[in-house]
Amino acid sequence: MVKRYVKKMKGQGHRSAPRPPMKEVFWSWFGSFLGIAAVALLHWKWAEPSDLILIIASFGASAVLIYGAIEAPLAQPRNLLGGHFLSALVGVACYQWMGSAMVLAAALSVSLAIAVMQLTKTLHPPGGATALIAVIGTDSVHNLGYLYALVPALSGAMVMLVVALLVNNLAPHRHYPKYWL
User: Fold this and answer.
1) What angle do the packed helices 22-42 and 58-68 form, to 10 degrees?
2) Domain-by-domain residue ranges, the chain?
3) What is the 3-state secondary structure of the chain?
4) Which residue among 3, 16, 138, 161 has its CA within the 20 to 30 Å range from the CA of 174?
């Protein structure tokens, strides 16, 4: 039984996926550059002077999906927006309920966010980071309370989505999204 369990960890013997064509690499680079730049620009020009935040680290992982893996179910608009928004709500709740027990709050925020995303069909891996940031973030994140779910989580994801819609559909061979709901 243990031998069979350990053998599973060797993988199934398949080779890795082939390298994408250079045109795909370019469009992924271009989209992610513009998407992150748009959110960052809005943050430093509009949000930062008001003590709000508009950019969070989990958007880097979202960029990989919505610009580099545009056909993946986890990269679709429902997943991007719902995953960040719902996970942010979960993260804030965990911090507010258990902020004094950070280890528990951190672990619970990610695991509950995963469960909520699965139950709502909004699974977006960066959502786990969005929930975790709500717990381990700085005072500027904690002071937002549930506003964190709207700004930066949902609003930043919406900016990146607009850029994804514009850039991903510029290339004749790309089509985004595959579906909305």
Assistant:
1) 140
2) 23-168
3) CHHHHHHHCCCCCCCCCCCCCHHHHHHHHHHHHHHHHHHHHHHHHHHHHHCCCCCCCHHHHHHHHHHHCCCCHHHCHHHHHHHHHHHHHHHHHHHHHHCCCHHHHHHHHHHHHHHHHHHCCCCCCHHHHHHHHHHHCCHHHHCCHHHHHHHHHHHHHHHHHHHHHHHHCCCCCCCCCCCCC
4) 16
In the block, tokens 């977006």 appear at 124
* CB distance 119 to 87 below 8 Å: no
Using CA atoms, how far apart are residues 105 and 119, in angstroms rounded to an integer?
Answer: 21
- Going by C-alpha positions, the residue among 41, 107, 81 that lies closest to residue 180 is 81
Q: What is the pLDDT of residues 109-166, one digit of tens each?
A: 999 999 999 999 999 999 999 999 999 999 999 999 999 999 999 999 999 999 999 9
Question: Please, are residues 171 and 27 in contact by the beta-carbon 8 Å criterion?
Answer: yes
With contact defined as beta carbons under 8 Å apart, do 131 and 109 qualify? Answer: yes
Q: Which residues contact 16 (CB under 8 A, 6 or more apart)?
A: none
Q: Which of 159, 161, 160, 135 is nearest to 148 (CA)?
A: 135
